[in-house]
Design brief:
Elements lengths: L5 E3 L5 E3 L3 E6 L8 H4 L3 E7 L8 H10 L9 E6 L5 H20 L12 H20 L7
Antiparallel strand pairs: 1-2, 3-4, 4-5
Helix pairs in contact: 2-3
Length: about 140
């Protein structure tokens, strides 16, 4: 997941761990006496707006795609309390940051407009005719 002191986002983009602020808090919910003693919840804070790890184009793309998740100062705050121990919550929150940033900096494929083939158009029209004929046959019949 992380190569020592960097978090690899894509093969070309890596965020230094010094730009990621990790803190720990007491996790809520059931858990007996353990929950009151151990700070196992991992809280991650990453200032996306001020990060020097992302190329300017990728940073702008990520800022627009993650704008609803950012604080006023441009920081992304994530937390994980899925596990009862701190190291697994730390790994989980770092993985979530990696997935979010990888998805945000990925440039979507450009759509090429296509047209249906002549055979596809003819199939569609034939199906429409058959459907209309079927519905017409369901109508009232005249008894001669």
């Amino acid at each position: 997941m992380d190569d020592g002191d960097v978090l690899r986002i894509t093969p070309r983009i890596a965020v230094p761990m010094r730009e990621i602020e990790l803190s720990y808090a007491r996790s809520g919910g059931p858990g007996g006496q353990n929950v009151n003693k151990v700070a196992s919840k991992a809280v991650l804070r990453f200032n996306l707006g001020a990060s020097s790890a992302l190329p300017p184009a990728a940073r702008l793309h990520a800022l627009t795609r993650l704008s609803s998740r950012l604080t006023r100062d441009g920081a992304l705050v994530l937390s994980s309390d899925a596990y009862r121990d701190q190291p697994r919550n730390r790994a989980a929150v770092l993985e979530r940051l990696r997935e979010l940033l990888a998805g945000a900096v990925a440039v979507p494929k450009r759509r090429r407009p296509t047209r249906p083939s002549r055979a596809a158009r003819e199939r569609r029209l034939t199906d429409k005719r058959q459907h209309g004929e079927r519905k017409r046959e369901r109508g009232r019949r005249d008894d001669d």
